[in-house]
UniProtKB/TrEMBL annotation:
Domain ABC transporter: 2-247
Protein name (Swiss-Prot/TrEMBL): ABC-2 type transport system ATP-binding protein
Keyword Nucleotide-binding: yes
GO biological process, one term: response to antibiotic
Gene Ontology cellular component list: plasma membrane
UniProt keyword annotations, A-Z: Antibiotic resistance, ATP-binding, Nucleotide-binding, Transport
UniProt KW ATP-binding keyword: yes
GO molecular-function term, one example from the UniProt record: ATP hydrolysis activity
Localization terms from the record: Cell membrane
C-alpha cells in the first residue's frame, strides 16, 4: 500500500548572519527514510517535535516533492499523480481543514460527493454509516466555523472517507480533543481498520492513540528511522525486564532465587512481591509456576513498561549514539 525508499527532503533556510547579511543553509527534514506499509495494517508514525513526521506525510500525500528517493502510495507516485492519488486515499490533518468554513457540514459533504464523483446511493450509505458511528446528526446543518474541534474532526474523518479509500492517512487526528472525543474517534478508526480492512497510517504525539490503534510503530527522529516493529518488540528491546506482581496467601522470604529474577521488592510484610525478571531467561508462565511451588498465589499481574518510557528510551539511546558517533558534525553538512 505504501512503499518508501531512501526518502529525503531538504529545505533551504535563510538566517541572519550579521548586519544586513543573510546566510543560507540546507537542512534535511527527512534524511533517508525507508519503510513499507501493507494493505490492512495500522501503523503509528511517531517521533519528537521536528523529527520529520509531517514532512514525510506531505510527501506521501503529494503536497511536497521529495528531494530524492522514491514513494509509491497505492501504486501511484504522489507528487506526480495527485488526482489519481486523491481518488485512492483519504487524508485528515488535525490542524488543517478540508471542509468549507462557511457552509453547513452537510453541504461540504455534498461538494466532496461531486468532486469525487461518488454515486448517490454510495454517498447516502457511507454518510449514514459515519453519521451514525460518529454521531454527526445533531450538527450536520451547522456551519463548519461554529463546530467544536471534536465535532469538526468527526466531520473531517467523514469527509476523508466519502469516496471509500483503501488508505487513510491521519496527521495528529486527536490533537486538542477532549478525552471523550478522542475515545470515540479511536473506536471508529479501530473499527474501520479491523472490520473494513482500511489501512491506517497516523502520526501522533498521543501514545494512547498508538496503544489503541497501532500494532506497529515506525519511530523517527532527526529525519531517520530509529525503530520499526510491533510495540511489544520495541518494548522488549529497550527493556529486557518485566515485572511479575504476586499476592501470596502467606508471607514468605523474598523470592530472589527463582530462575530469571533479577530483583525483588516486597510489600505487605512479604505477601505481595514485585519480581523483576529477564524476559530472555524465563517466561511469565514459568515464573508463575515457580512461585506457586513455594506459596499459594491468589492474585497476579505482569507489568509491561509504559509505552511513553519505551519511546523516550529509544529517542534517548539514539541521541547518546549520535553524541558518541557524530561529534562536531553539523546536521546539514552530511
Ligand atoms: N517549509 C519548511 N522550511 C524550512 N524548514 C522546514 C519546513 N518544514 C519543516 N521544516 C523543518 O524540518 C524539520 C522537520 O519538520 P516536521 O514538521 O516534518 O516535523 P514533525 O516531526 O512533524 O514535528 P512536530 O511533531 O513538531 O509536528 C524541522 O526541523 C522543521 O523546522
Amino acid at each position: 500500500m505504501i512503499e518508501v525508499r531512501d526518502l529525503r527532503r531538504e529545505f533551504r533556510i535563510s538566517e541572519k548572519a550579521g548586519f544586513l547579511r543573510r546566510a543560507h543553509r540546507t537542512v534535511a527534514a527527512v534524511d533517508g527514510v525507508s519503510f513499507d506499509v501493507a494493505a490492512g495494517e495500522a501503523v503509528g508514525y511517531v517521533g519528537p517535535n521536528g523529527a520529520g513526521k509531517s514532512t514525510t506525510i506531505k510527501m506521501l500525500t503529494g503536497i511536497l516533492v521529495p528531494t530524492s528517493g522514491t514513494v509509491r502510495v497505492s501504486g501511484v507516485d504522489p507528487s506526480r499523480q495527485r488526482k489519481e492519488l486523491a481518488r485512492r486515499i483519504g487524508v485528515v490533518f488535525g490542524q488543517r481543514s478540508q471542509l468549507w468554513w462557511d457552509l453547513p457540514l452537510a453541504d461540504s459533504f455534498e461538494l466532496l460527493k461531486a468532486i469525487y464523483r461518488v454515486s448517490g446511493p454510495d454517498f447516502a450509505k457511507r454518510l449514514a454509516e459515519c453519521a451514525d458511528l460518529l454521531e454527526l446528526g445533531p450538527f450536520l446543518t451547522t456551519p463548519v466555523r461554529q463546530l467544536s474541534l471534536g465535532q469538526r474532526m468527526r466531520g473531517e474523518v467523514t469527509a476523508a472517507l466519502l469516496h471509500a479509500p483503501d488508505l487513510l492517512v491521519l496527521d495528529e487526528p486527536t490533537i486538542g480533543l477532549d478525552l471523550e472525543s478522542k475515545e470515540r474517534l479511536r473506536e471508529f478508526l479501530a473499527e474501520l481498520n479491523t472490520r473494513r480492512g482500511t489501512t491506517l497510517l497516523l502520526t501522533t504525539h498521543d501514545l494512547d492513540d498508538i496503544q489503541r490503534l497501532c500494532p506497529r510503530l515506525v519511530v523517527i527522529d532527526h529525519g531517520t528511522v530509529l525503530a520499526d516493529g510491533p510495540l511489544a518488540d520495541l518494548s522488549a528491546e529497550v527493556s529486557p525486564e518485566r515485572v511479575l506482581v504476586v499476592d501470596l496467601d502467606v508471607a514468605v522470604e523474598p523470592l530472589a532465587d527463582l530462575p530469571g529474577v533479577v530483583s525483588v521488592r516486597t510489600e505487605l510484610g512479604g505477601r505481595r512481591q514485585h519480581l523483576a525478571f529477564r524476559r530472555d531467561v524465563t517466561t511469565a508462565a514459568a515464573l508463575i509456576a515457580a512461585v506457586a511451588a513455594r506459596a499459594e498465589v491468589h492474585d497476579l499481574s505482569v507489568v509491561e513498561p509504559e509505552i511513553d518510557d519505551v519511546v523516550r528510551t529509544l529517542y534517548a539511546r539514539r541521541h547518546a549514539d549520535r553524541s558518541v558517533g557524530n561529534v562536531g558534525v553539523p546536521h546539514d553538512s552530511r
